[in-house]
Amino acid sequence: MPTIAEAGRQIAAKQISPVELTETCLAKAEAENPALHAFIRFTPEIARAQAQAAEARQMAGGLLGPLDGIPIAHKDIYETAGVPTTGHSRMLIDHVPTSDAAVVRLWREAGAVMLGKLATHEFAWGGPSFDLPWPPARNPWDVSRFTGGSSSGTGAAVASGSILGGTGSDTGGSIRGPAGLCGIAGIEPTYGLCSRSGVLPLSQSLDTTGPMASTVEDCALLLDAMTGHDATDPSSAMRPKPDLLSGLNAGVKGLRIGVIRHFHEDDCKVSPATATGIAHVAETLRGLGAEIQEVTLPPLADFNAAGWLILAADAFAVHEPWMRDRLRAYGAFLRDRLALAATITAADYLNAQRRRRELCDAVAGAMIGCDLLLTAAQPGEAKPIEQVGKWASFETPNLTIPFNLTGQPALSVCAGFGEGGMPVGAQLIGRPWEDATVLRAGHAYEQATTWRGRRPAMG
Amino acid sequence: MAEPFDKPQFDALMARAGLDLTEAEREAIRAASHHLVAAAASVRAPREVSVETATTFAPRVAG
Known about the structure:
By secondary structure, chain A is α/β, with parallel strands linked by helices.
């Protein structure tokens, strides 16, 4: 399957047909879904109509841009007009929005072709669960394995090649986790860069919307089409739309990259393959002209403590009315996690928010001397899905939540493969609003490696 | 490792939240409560006023 960049060039050159590309992706997605469960709903009528419209523009020489005619799908927390949006939950099984989420609208207006709605952990926190109306997504590298979450369906569908890109959301790592475990790319953009309007919330102070795709270049193309101030989202920053594309090939010469060694070597000791992958990223970027140094941040446990308190309390605030009145409509994972969150006091929450500010200051101070940070995206390869327990997210330190707390852009890139043949992920982090620098470095790394050439049997 | 909430404390918190859980469900959740007890303890410290959240209240002027 081509990347978005490749397909976009081929569509522009009239070498491929958006209708044929859409039919190929739809057929692949529908054939694989009984094993992969990446989709909870297909929208073939919408896809065919959008593909035909794209093809008409192609023939008339009036393409809308690099996403015109590109098959994508949306995580099922993104509202889609006339198409059920359930949050993968029994709670909203009959919910049919009357309008699109802002990002859905932006991608539609850019010509992207929506193939359907993708599996997620229930309301982006409860999974992998087997007691929901749809089964959890499976990892295309090995369908007995976990995809990571909560953007599980997007990770699986992109890695298998049944869509070229899709939406995710990231509150504690829900884009970067599945990207890392499925061997693709995904970016959690700077908090406030992309609208969350029309996206089912988990934590108002941590939620970000963002893209997932096979490559960093594709993430840049998708993200470029989802930025911009949105007055309907109070967290949307009033800033000019950033230029994410013109410098993408500028390389990393002179960039200073700080490796947060204690995160992945001490605070959360990662697998040997992951450690090798991070070293490979550092050495590759050094070879391309970056300066590699080591940085020390506060302990990972401090970020996790503040992060989980805020995420859990925010989530309980969102779900409290339903928890009181419709408790049995939730799956057990989310129900019990939300019930645990009910124990958090107002003082705990405010203390966590204050600690968050200190942690933001500490990271900003550490980045005075460097442009990017580097650590792991995940501790290792994907586990067997049945081994992922209800409290797993509290039991293993989370390497991604620090940068939800700080609101910084963070990208997961494939950094190699482990002993089990599954991908491992590295994480590149930039200063707030320097998403373009993160993408530039990730793209430079990908261009210098051959990981993309290795695809799952389903891919 | 922090201790989980004791049973009377935990049951009171669930009742206060209005959650109609079974005894077995409450006990399973209580057993995991040490994670958040430890997290709360770790952020409990006096702090400078400079780290107060900025979004507490934003006064608005009509017109």
